[in-house]
UniProtKB/TrEMBL annotation:
Protein name: Ribonuclease P protein component
Keyword Hydrolase in record: yes
ATP-binding as UniProt keyword: no
Family of the protein in this entry: Belongs to the RnpA family.
Record organism: Celeribacter arenosi
Amino acid sequence: MTPPDAPEVMANAAAEDPRSAVLSCLPSGLTVLSKRADFLKAARARRQSTPSFLLQARKRIDGEAATGIRVGYTCSKKVGNAVARNHAKRRLREAARLILPEAGHDGWDYVLIGKRGDTSTRKFDLLLGDLKQALARIHGARS
């Protein structure tokens, strides 16, 4: 008996793009930042602190990817060990997946930075509210 073809197809897709499993979970129009230069550009732009994380946001200039929302996640070692950092980033990733397609603006980059203890321990509905509020402040203050 021969094995089914499905695992082979999945293996080929993963070989083409190792992030394909992560990217397939994102809503359309949402892309993950992966280059350090993009994170540094966001760090020089607008920022909004919340009780559970820090949001950095910037409008992309002409010549860069013009459409879609790009988002990045980071947690320093201050957040804790690798398990704590990964837990915080998973929560930020899920919050961005739920909120950014509706509240985010096309042509913008967002970076969510986890805080020690607060990102992991804050109730998830409050974390979602923090993201909505931070986006409203970023986009309401200046256009």
